[in-house]
Design a protein that fits this description.
Layout: H1 4-17, E1 18-27, E2 37-39, H2 41-46, E3 53-67, E4 75-77, E5 83-85, E6 93-103
Antiparallel strand pairs: 1-2, 1-3, 3-6, 4-5
Length: 110
């Protein structure tokens, strides 16, 4: 087991390496317990559909700790047509996109 101070330092480093985070909510529009579409919180709130949210899709853009010699000018394609491009000041890092869907307990059966 690592000392508490070391765990905290590692968590702070990890948080700094996450450059972009996107949360989208899976809405069950036809009441079959499966998400029919994913959208942002503002859209769910505006349509008063929080009771139909059955999952959450989390997307992270994470960068490496070490700088590289090549600029990363990639336009990363994210779910729902969104894109991410690294800020000019931090383009000399490699990046990776991670996406995961989490079902909300007791809202989905399949």
């Amino acid at each position: 087991e690592k000392p508490e101070a070391e765990k905290t330092d590692q968590n702070m480093v990890r948080q700094r390496l996450v450059e972009h985070m996107q949360l989208e909510y899976g809405v069950d529009a036809n009441l079959d317990t499966n998400p029919d579409f994913y959208t942002d919180a503002a859209t769910v709130s505006a349509a008063a559909q929080w009771n139909r949210v059955v999952s959450v899709r989390l997307t992270l853009v994470v960068r490496a700790e070490e700088r590289t010699t090549l600029a990363d000018t990639t336009v990363y394609n994210l779910p729902n047509g969104a894109t991410y491009t690294a800020p000019a000041a931090s383009q000399y890092y490699q990046r990776k996109v991670f996406t995961s869907v989490v079902d909300i307990r007791n809202r989905r059966r399949s």
